[in-house]
Amino acid sequence: MGRPGFEAVYDAYKDLVFQTAYLYLKDWYAAEDIMQETFLRYYIYMEHTKVENARKWLLTAAKNMALNHIRDIARSTSLGMEEDEEGSLGSEESSEDIFFARLWRREVIRSADTILGALYRKSRRWFDAVTLVYCMGKPQKEVAACMGMSLDSFQSMLYRAKNWIKKHYREEYDHIYRT
After folding, report:
1. At what angle do helices 2-25 and 54-88 cross, to 10 degrees?
2. Which of 132, 121, 123 is nearest to 37 (CA)?
3. Which of 50, 61, 70, 150 is spaced 20 to 30 A from 176 at the CA atom?
């Protein structure tokens, strides 16, 4: 299929995939994330397999990812409630420590979303490389092969992406990781 074929599918179905995710989630940003993840998986999947009906594949994937997202939120909410119960039943941490730990985690997640969004706008290839290697834990060699690059070229691209992140977001991360 190749890059032009992918771009045609993306242009044709991006709004529909977003609407499908939004229908389930009722959250604009989460629906955008699901849309991006759906097309990332489609891009990787189409490299190895012929997709007979791209529309059906994309809508099914978006629906499943949205439902998984809802399930994960429900789990984290119930786990958060369990943590609250432990904190009130004599945990070593004070409620103030628990509050600030949660606040710090939220700030880290918000910063990561901001940085990955900016990286996506800067370079889709950099975004793909960083998310596949550092967020999804894929081996660099495997991702380089999927992207049609030599390992050395791929590692150079990762290096440039990391330096770009450091240059534009160092202050934000220094604030988060300051002790």
Report:
1. 50
2. 132
3. 70
Contact 18, 32 (CB under 8 A): yes
CA distances from 164 to 55, 100, 109, 174 (A): 35, 30, 19, 15
Rounded to an integer, what is the distance from CA 147 to the centroid of its chain?
18
Query: For 90, which DSSP code?
Result: T
By the 8 A CB rule, do 147 and 123 touch? no
| Residue-level pLDDT at 80 | 52
CB-based contacts of 35, cutoff 8 Å, min separation 6? 14, 17, 18, 21, 62
pLDDT of 173 strictly over 90: no
CA–CA separation, 43 and 118 (whole Å): 20
Query: For 89-139, where are the alpha helices, taking DSSP H only?
Result: 95-122, 124-130
Q: Which domains does the chain have, with CATH numbers?
A: 1-92 (1.10.1740.10), 94-179 (1.10.10.10)
CB-based contact 152:144 (threshold 8 Å): no
**Residue 86's pLDDT band (cuts 50, 70, 90):** very low
When pLDDT is cut at 50, 70 and 90, the band that residue 88 belongs to is: very low
Rounded to a whole number of angstroms, the distance between the first and last alpha carbons of the chain is: 50
Answer yes or no: are the C-beta atoms of 28 and 7 closer than 8 Å.
no
